[in-house]
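Example: Beta-glucosidase.
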Amino acid sequence: MTSLPALSALSGSSAVSAPSAFSPPITKRFSVSASPDSRPALDLEAFPPSFAWGTATSAYQIEGAVAEDGRAPSIWDTFTRTPGAIDNGDNGDTACDHYHRWPEDLALMKGLGTDAYRLSIAWPRVVPGGDGPVNAAGLDFYDRLVDALLDADIAPSVTLYHWDLPQALQDRVRDSRGGWTERATAEHLAAYASVVAERLGDRVTQWATLNEPLCSGWIGHLEGRMAPGYTDLTAAVRASYHLLLGHGLVTQAIRAAAPGARVGLVTNHSTVAPASTRPEDIAAAARMDGHTNRWWLDPVYGRGFPADMRELYGVELPEQAGDMETIAAPLDWHGLNYYFPVTVADDPAGPVPHAREVRLPDVPRTGMDWQIDAGGLEAFLLRLTDDYGVRELYVTENGSAFPDTVAPDGAVHDPERTRYLEQHLAACARALRKGAPLAGYYAWSLLDNFEWAYGFDKRFGLVHVDYATQKRTVKTSGRRYADIIRAHRQATAG
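Written out as C-alpha cells, the predicted fold is:
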C-alpha cells in the first residue's frame, strides 16, 4: 500500500515537459443516498463481464522467512533494525508467514470468489546479491505459487519491484549513495526481471515493472520514513530518475523474455486541491501535484520530466542519450493505487515542494488519519484516461486501515472498512460510465500485514491475522467483497 504523507485537477521526447455490520444481499443496484457515511449506489452493470476482481499483497509485507532457502537481506531488513524507524520495533521477519502458509491464503482467495491476485517477487529471494547468481529455491517458490493460482482459476499479476532492494546493491556505492541513486541498479533490475520472466513468462501474462516509485524515491530518499532512510534531495531526484529508467529497461526485458506479456506500471496518486483561492495556495497545489503526480506520469507518457519541478528541485538529472525514449516505452496497462485526496496551503519555509497539508474539518478519516473521499478515485481514473490517454486501467490498490476487534465468537466486524470498499467501488462504476477503461480492481489487502513504518498496528486486510497464532479470519468487509463479486457475475451472466 501507499505510505504517502498526508500532503488534481491541476494538470509535456526530451527530459522536460511543459508547465454497518454485514450488509444484506445486493441486486443490480441498491439505494442512493447523498450521505458519505451511508451506502452509495453500486451500479454492477457498469462493470464489464470480464472485469477482474482481485486482492493485492507484497512480498516483504506477508512472506516472512527472510533468512530461509537462500534469501539475502533487503534494505527493509536493514531499515527495520534502525532504532525508532518502525512503530513498536516491528519487522517483517515472520509477517504473515505466507512463505509457509500460502496454500491457506490461496484457499482464502478462492473462498472470496476473486479471479485475480496481485503479488510481488522478492528480488533478494531470487537474485540475493542483486546481480550475479540466481537462487533456484527462490524461483521454485514463485513457480509453485503461480501454478497453484492458475489451478485455482486465479490469474497472477506479478510486480517485479515492491521496494525490497537487495541490501548488497544499497551497499554498492559508485557515483552517489548506492542503491537507486546509482544507474547500475536500474540495469540490475532489468537483468533480474529477465530471469523471472524467462521462468514464469509462459504462465504469467500481466506484469508490473514497479510499485509506487514515489514511495521509494521521495519517502525513502527525501523524507527518510522508508528504506533506505535518506533525507537528501539530490539523492531523491537521482533515485526517482533511476527508478523510472529501471521501469523502462524492465519493460524491454520482459517483452524480450516473454513476447506475449502485457506490461504495466503501478503508481500511487492523490488528487490535490488548494486550501483557498489565494494565488499562493493555488501555486502550492500545483507544486504538490507536480511532486506527487506529474513527476511520475509525464516522463512515462512521453512528456519528459516537468520543467517547473526540475526548476524547483534544482538538481541535474543523470540523463544519458536514449533514456527518455526508454522510460516512455508504450505500456499495455496502467495501475492506479489510490487511498486519499490532499488539500494544501503555501508553506515557503517548509520542505520541498513547499506545500502544507490542511486538515479539513468534519471529514471522515481512516485509522491512518487519511481523508476519505471516493470521488478522488473517480477523478484520477478519468485524469489518466483523458489527460494521459491510458487505454487500459486497473485499480491495483485501494483500501483502508481501521482498528479491528475480534468478537467473543471470533468474528471480525469492520463496518467502516466495508463502507470504504463500497464507496470506492461505486466511484469505479461512475468512472466506467464516464469512459474510463477500467478492467479490474485489486483490494488492498488480502491480509493484515506488516505496514512498513507503521509495523503491525495498522490493519488493511479483508482477512484478519492474529500474528501470535497466524490464524486467519475473514472480516465482514471480506464477506461483503465476496457478495459483490458474486452479484456482479450473476448480473452480467449470459
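The first helix runs from residue 59 to 62.
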